[in-house]
Amino acid sequence: MKHKLLTIVRILLGWTFLWAFLDKTLGLGFATITERAWINGGSPTYGFLTYSAKGPFMDFYKSIAGNPIFDWLFMLGLLLIGLSFIFNRYVKYSGWFGALLMILMYTAGFILPENNPLIDEHIIYAILFLYYAKADKDKLRNNG
Q1: What is the mean pLDDT of each run of 10 residues along the chain (144 residues)?
Q2: Three-state DSSP class for 42?
Q3: Residue 4: which residues within 8 A CB-CB, separation 6 or more?
Q4: Would you tell me how many other CB atoms lie within 10 Å of the CB of residue 115?
Q5: With b meaning 16 or more CB within 10 Å and e meaning fewer, what string describes 25-47?
Q6: Given this model, what pLDDT does residue 120 score?
Q7: What's residue 141's pLDDT?
Q8: Where are the domains of the chain?
Q9: 91-95: long-range contacts, CB 8 A cutoff, minimum separation 24
């Protein structure tokens, strides 16, 4: 039972990141409108880093907002983390990179996250990513 639950959580986490990639790439109208889609010339980092960055790292994040190198790194991260977790390949590495991405996103809005003054979803995701990065794949598979 434990393994099945961990498998479901892993796939759902992967889908969350793959969906973010698809929505930002194609502008499916959820978080990204069609006109601002990456394939239509929009920047997947510009809006969040320009308007949501605050705290001690605000100047850094605003300085990289919309930079094509960071757009590519961000989008490749979303895609590869999502696919890795869905297909259960390279999860250890994707877990570390996913945790790093979540910590970076957390520090972009650092000091007072919107919904909770200390912990927001980025910290929860980072902890999940770290769990999967450190988990022994064979133990998860055989000790369910």
Answers
A1: 91 98 97 96 95 91 97 98 97 97 90 71 95 78 52
A2: coil
A3: 144
A4: 8
A5: bebeeeebeeebbbeeebbbbbb
A6: 85
A7: 61
A8: 2-142
A9: 91/10, 91/132, 91/133, 91/135, 91/137, 92/132, 92/133, 92/134, 92/137, 93/133, 94/129, 94/132, 94/133, 95/129, 95/130, 95/131, 95/132, 95/133, 95/134, 95/135
Round to whole Å and give the CA distance between 123 and 81. Answer: 16
Chain position carrying tokens 């369910």: 144
Rounded CA separation 110/36 (Å): 25
CB 35 within 8 A of CB 28: no
Q: Are 133 and 96 in contact (CB under 8 A)?
A: yes
